[in-house]
Specification:
The protein contains five helices and nine strands; from the N terminus they run αβββαβαβαββββα. It is an alpha+beta fold and 207 residues long.
Length: 207
């Protein structure tokens, strides 16, 4: 093969190898970013969660320290939610049942994105409804306090409509927080009780 052709062929091979390396870096980086959200960052620092100050359904002021000492499932919703919120609560109760005795160390925290309507009493009435998990902690607060908590958890919400029949669009992620109050994993709201329980067991085993 002529020298010029050999050089051209070698150059083409190098270019292809470089392109493949670039693609590999992009793919790996994307996977690492996805893993950082679902299971925490490589440094052990949480990618979601943080300080907040809210009011529980008994009218008591609480902050992020209520997560300390227990595993917690935190999610955002509102009591007027017609489908996703009650479905999620019911699914989380089924997940706790799947966990058996392990669920003794697991609490559910429901943070409203509709503080105008979701007073402490409204939360208490809602969360004590038949079919919902017993012992759910409901949290509300001022508009600013709720917005700060949502930012800490990277939770999206927005008001839709202006009259009394308005609704709220909101993200559906359930956040699994460790007993140190730090983020461990994200659960899809529609994952299902058995897969959710298995994921929680795996994360708990890692501590």
């Amino acid at each position: 093969m002529p020298r010029r052709s050999i050089l051209l062929f070698a150059g083409a091979c190098i270019a292809i190898a470089a392109a493949l390396a670039t693609v590999t870096v992009v793919v790996v980086t994307g996977r690492e970013r996805a893993s950082a959200f679902s299971e925490g960052t490589a440094t052990g620092q949480p990618s979601v969660g943080g300080p907040f100050q809210l009011v529980n359904q008994d009218g008591q002021t609480v902050d992020q320290t209520l997560l300390n000492g227990k595993w917690s499932l935190v999610f955002f919703g509102f009591t007027y939610c017609p489908d996703f919120c009650p479905t999620t609560l019911t699914a989380l109760e089924a997940t706790r049942n799947q966990l058996g005795g392990t669920a003794d160390d697991l609490q559910i925290v429901f943070i409203t994105v509709d503080p105008a309507r979701d007073t402490p009493q409204a939360l208490k009435d809602y969360l004590t409804s038949d079919g919902f998990p017993p012992g759910v902690i409901g949290l509300t607060g001022t508009d600013e306090q709720v917005a700060a908590a949502a930012r800490a958890y990277r939770a999206f919400y927005e008001k839709v409509g202006e009259d009394q029949d308005y609704t709220m669009n909101h993200s559906l992620t359930v956040y699994l927080m460790g007993p140190d109050g730090q983020f461990r994993s994200a659960l899809a709201h529609d994952l299902g009780p058995e897969p959710s329980a298995e994921l929680i067991r795996r994360v708990m085993a890692r501590g």
